[in-house]
Amino acid sequence: MFGARQNLVLVVTAALLAIQAACERGGPPATQPARAGTATALTRIAPASRNWSKAEAGAKLADEQLGLSAAVRLVRLAGATPLCLPETLTDDQVEHLRLARLSTSRWALGVTARNDAHRLRAPVLFSTDGDVELLGEGVEEELTVLYLADQPDVFPHVAILPDRVLLTNDETEPAIVLEPDEPVHFELRERQGYPYLALVLPQAGAVAAVATYKWDPYELVFVGPAVDALPDPPGGRFHIDVAASRRLEPMGGELPESRPIQRPPASQPQPVQDSRDLPA
Questions:
Q1: Rg (CA), the chain
Q2: Which residues contact 87 (CB under 8 A, 6 or more apart)?
Q3: How far apart are CA 87 and CA 220, in angstroms?
Q4: pLDDT tens-digit series, residues 184-208
Q5: Rounded Cα distance, 74 and 84, in Å
Q6: Nearest Cα to 12, choosing from 166, 190, 163, 180?
Q7: What is the largest CA-CA distance in the chain?
Q8: Among 224, 231, 236, 89, CA closest to 165
Q9: What residues are paired with 108 via a beta bridge?
């Protein structure tokens, strides 16, 4: 168990450092010279956006030219401090941001992953009403990746955290949630061009998939095991929190242990009052 957890910590630490570098450095790789005059300049955000109200900024999210400025303004108005939008923002950092539409009323902003425009790291969600939603805090925020689906009707937009998967199309909803302190975590993978969720276990420098979850576009649920065996080491089983997983149809794996039925205490019979004791 210790080896699996140690490998997971290494994976988490590597991802954390990569995201921090993208947000804090924001510029070209160290092997390339930075462009002169751009280290502290901020020209990619409209100066007028500093005066927009929440309603004005929300209405401009769909604007191709002003949408990013609107997202930044909404974050500032909300008093939020997401990882992808530091208080002191530069053009180099803005260059790594992407604002993407999730539905008619939802947007997402995040750091674009290298060579994959479909993934946003440390994302922030917005509604056209101007509301701002952060999906995690601290290390959890740094490890959150939002997958932008090409065809949301076939496979939805999902935010993937180590211990859970969230649907983000029209609202944020927990799709699959692990029980606490499990040594596995979720990843999004593809097979023959089709995305699916993999539950993976870091092992001795490798990452083994121990379960897969496919999206059913008709039932609008993920299909996969709620409980199944883990390889040695660490052995044992992983457990999905079925009660918290609103979009999971358990299938395959092992049957979860049945929980004892809590029966209500038997009601005590009420004493029958003698009619002679009743008031006249």
A1: 25
A2: 81
A3: 39
A4: 999 999 998 899 999 999 876 778 8
A5: 14
A6: 163
A7: 103
A8: 224
A9: 100, 125
- What is the rounded distance in angstroms from the CA atom of residue 256 to the CA atom of residue 120? 34
Question: Global pTM?
Answer: 0.76
Between CA 97 and CA 143 the distance in angstroms is 16
Peptide bond into 231 cis (omega under 30): no
> In this structure, what token pair is assigned to residue 86?
């530091």
β-strands 164-167, 158-161: how paired?
antiparallel
Main-chain phi, psi angles of 222, to 5 degrees: -90, 145
Q: Both tokens of residue 272? A: 């029958």
Structural tokens at position 188 = 């999004």
Spatial separation of the C-alpha atoms in residues 111 and 122, rounded to whole Å: 7
Please, which contacts does 31-40 make with residues 24 or more away whose CB atoms are closer than 8 Å?
A: 34/92, 38/90, 38/91, 38/92, 39/90, 39/92, 40/90
Single-letter amino acid code for the residue at 207: V
User: Tokens 């809590």, residue?
Assistant: 262
Q: Please tell me the distance from the alpha carbon of residue 47 to that of residue 49, in angstroms, as a whole number.
A: 5
Q: CA-CA distance, 193 to 174, in Å (whole number)? A: 25
pLDDT tens by residue, 36-66: 444 457 899 999 999 999 999 999 999 999 9
Locate tokens 């609107």: which residue?
70
Question: Which tokens sit at 44?
Answer: 């990619």
Question: How far is 222 from 216, CA to CA, in rounded Å?
Answer: 6
